[in-house]
Amino acid sequence: MKLLARKATCNSHGQDSSYFLGWQEYEKNPYHEYQNPTGIIQMGLAENQLSFDLLESWLAKNPDTTSFKRNGESIFRELALFQDYHGLPAFKHALVEFMGELRGNRVSFDPSKLVLTAGATSANETLIFCLAEPGEAFLLPTPYYPGFDRDLKWRTGVEIVPIHCNSSNGFRITQSALDEAYQQAQKQNLKVKGVLITNPSNPLGTTISRDEFDHLINFIASKGIHLISDEIYSGTVFDSPGFVSVAEVLMDRNLQETDVWERVHIVYSLSKDLGLPGFRVGAIYSNDVTVVAAATKMSSFGLVSSQTQYLLSAMLSDKKFSRNYIIENQRRLKKRHGMLVSGLLNAGIRCLKSNAGLFCWVDMRHLLSSNTFEAEMELWKKILYEVRLNISPGSSCHCTEPGWFRVCFANMSEDTLNLSMQRIKAFVDSTAATTSNDSDTPSQRQLVRNSRRGSLTKWVFRLSSYERKAER
């Protein structure tokens, strides 16, 4: 161990978070409709599998692209030898056009200000490397994506200070919350270099409002710090209010000639909107030429393959396809979101009102045995091991209130989603049937707990029997 670097032996990666532990348990016992119908259903994965048929249909109609041909002639050698970390000009042009399309063409983007990266994970980390030194801090509104504890901190040495948001106003960002987070950083002797937001929010599934943008922009202007807007879910907005990019807000406020213009940076990816996380396509967009130059150099450590760029440049340049895809994908997301919300409501569980994303922020506070994070973990383990659904507890997202969970809906079939709703309803009904009264004595409560355990075991057996019959 002494021969290894501290980075190899430290425990700051965040892999011990319940967010990742749930994935590990799922991988041990994954649900399969036929091979393992009683396994764990993965509802902790924000993956868009609803529109693959649209992508596959385009590929079938454009065989030259997948064969790496141009006008019938092979360009395999050209693509295989290309190594320029500035990226294929055709792809960068197609990508900024697609980004503009997602924003209703209310703003446009300059390909020369775009840096390609191997996914949004790489984009966020690269920006942090460019904007902050080890030991400095970024402020993040809670709840936030658990992976940020890894992406922003692990290799950069930068700290995260939470901006605490709560359910009283739908977890919206307020001026007082920004001020309190900044003061907390100062108490910890941390120099704040910026704020990072996700818009639409992961895990809330909500878009940033104009009022929140005003708070954020006024805040970074007064403090002389940066703002990173992670907009990888921009194409998943399926309901009103529509998506407003930070780029549009800057234009509306006529900030092009101010220093704020160069301190706002956008992260984008095709992982969520097109459902292509395996392609590893991300991007940084910045008006700061020094940041663009530095990030471009850093991108050589995580390039997007030229073959991927060629294929996607052809796909995104097909305007008829891209426009139809955006509309149809959003329609399907809205339908699937409605299925999850109504299914949970049928089980007596409500969700935060949302209009975007591949997940819902689900309120299970009424199912906790006490208003504590220990009770949240107890409930999470029951849902994971007994109900056999992997969802993400709010504590893994740094939520300040126990009992909230992120539940994903776009990475499975309708039948699997319906089955997950049957499971959660049976669990809630079983739990409610054995809930003890507040007046019960400790011995009575212990009897209730034992009875609950027994009824839950019987419920698991009944549901397993049901699933085995369904398999037949």
TrEMBL record:
One of its GO terms (molecular function) is pyridoxal phosphate binding. Residues 41-423 form the Aminotransferase class I/classII large domain. Pfam families: Aminotran_1_2 (PF00155). InterPro entries: Aminotransferase_I/II_large (IPR004839), Ethylene_sulfur-biosynth (IPR050478), NHTrfase_class1_PyrdxlP-BS (IPR004838), PyrdxlP-dep_Trfase (IPR015424), PyrdxlP-dep_Trfase_major (IPR015421), PyrdxlP-dep_Trfase_small (IPR015422). GO terms for biological process: amino acid metabolic process; ethylene biosynthetic process; fruit ripening. Its EC number is 4.4.1.14. It comes from the Eukaryota. The keyword Magnesium does not apply. It catalyses: S-adenosyl-L-methionine = 1-aminocyclopropane-1-carboxylate + S-methyl-5'-thioadenosine + H(+). Coiled coil: none annotated. Pathway: Alkene biosynthesis; ethylene biosynthesis via S-adenosyl-L-methionine; ethylene from S-adenosyl-L-methionine: step 1/2. Its cofactor is pyridoxal 5'-phosphate. Gene3D superfamilies: Aspartate Aminotransferase, domain 1, Type I PLP-dependent aspartate aminotransferase-like (Major domain). Keywords: Ethylene biosynthesis, Fruit ripening, Lyase, Pyridoxal phosphate, S-adenosyl-L-methionine. Belongs to the class-I pyridoxal-phosphate-dependent aminotransferase family. This is 1-aminocyclopropane-1-carboxylate synthase. It comes from Nelumbo nucifera. The lineage of its organism: Eukaryota, Viridiplantae, Streptophyta, Embryophyta, Tracheophyta.
